[in-house]
Design goal:
Elements lengths: L2 H10 L4 H21 L6 H8 L3 H13 L3 E3 L6 E3 L1 H11 L5 H15 L2 E8 L3 E8 L14 E3 L3 H9 L5 H10 L5 H17 L2 E4 L6 E9 L5 E10 H4 L4 H18 L5
Antiparallel strand pairs: 1-2, 3-4, 3-8, 4-5, 6-7, 7-8
Helix pairs in contact: 2-3, 3-4, 6-11, 7-9
Length: 268
């Protein structure tokens, strides 16, 4: 039996049927999530306790995850952490195309040109968005950002652009606003008008709402038929924004957005 097939069957619970397979996969994912959220490697006992698994089931699943590289034994002793293959899978999920190497270069050029941070955000589920690629400027004092950060769907400059292109019905739209502290008919109506104006202008801005003393610009990444794929957010200190060539920054970011759409294969 080939190795990958054997490993798949082990995670799936052997010949226990479809329900057993789904249950085992869910348990394996729970282990990965627990290790991913932990601040340090976990022992087998801690993993079993954190996932509500029996010691024997936990041992079998962890052993299988180790054998396929998704989990690895820690150098600290009898404990476990996410494996190198997990990192590889995560990078592939964040950068689905080899063309994103070129995108990163273009982002770095803009970032260095204006001494600002750039982040590409893409939808993550139905209630949030996730940073996928980050570029920091060359200034000695920087605003630290990293890939994999999750934000509420309508939060910040990027969130307002997601709101501007949202296809949610009225109830779901209002629920997402409630998650960021916008409630009441007048506040909801004002937000809707704000994002409608942002969409018409082609970019959004946020001043100190997400982070004090920080300003951000959001530029949409669109398909050829104007569907939203994601948002490029450009972040700088508020004092920079007050003197920055905003029109030039937005223009460069708009060209970058077209490049990103091309890398995603969604320009037509």
């Amino acid at each position: 039996m080939h190795g990958e097939q054997k490993m798949t069957e082990e995670i799936a619970g052997g010949s226990g049927g479809e329900k057993g397979a789904v249950a085992s996969i869910s348990k394996a994912i729970a282990i990965l999530r627990l290790l991913g959220s932990a601040n340090a490697p976990l022992t087998m006992t801690e993993i079993a306790r954190g996932t509500h698994l029996t010691p024997s089931s936990c041992h079998d699943l962890v052993s299988t995850l180790v054998s396929i590289g998704l989990v690895q034994a820690s150098s600290l002793g009898k404990s476990y952490e996410l494996g190198a293959r997990t990192v590889k899978l995560a990078k592939r999920a964040l950068h689905p195309s080899d063309k994103f190497h070129e995108v990163q270069h273009s982002m770095n050029l803009i970032s260095d040109k204006y001494d600002i941070n750039l982040t590409i955000y893409q939808p993550f589920g139905s209630q949030s968005y996730l940073s996928t690629i980050v570029s920091e400027g060359s200034a000695p004092i920087r605003i630290r950002l990293s890939p994999g950060q999750e934000h509420k769907l309508f939060q910040g400059a990027a969130g307002r652009m997601f709101a501007a292109y949202s296809t949610l019905d009225a109830a779901e739209f209002t629920a997402q606003l409630d998650r960021i502290g916008v409630s009441g008919d007048k506040a909801v109506a004002a937000f809707r008008q704000l994002v409608a104006d942002d969409k018409a202008r082609g970019w959004t801005e946020d001043h100190g709402v997400t982070q004090r003393g920080v300003a951000a610009i959001g530029v949409p990444i669109l398909t050829g038929d104007a569907r939203l794929l994601g948002v490029i957010e450009l972040v700088m200190f508020q004092r920079q924004y007050e003197h920055a060539p905003i029109a030039a920054i937005v223009r460069d970011a708009t060209h970058l957005a077209q490049e990103v759409a091309g890398a995603l294969g969604r320009t037509a």
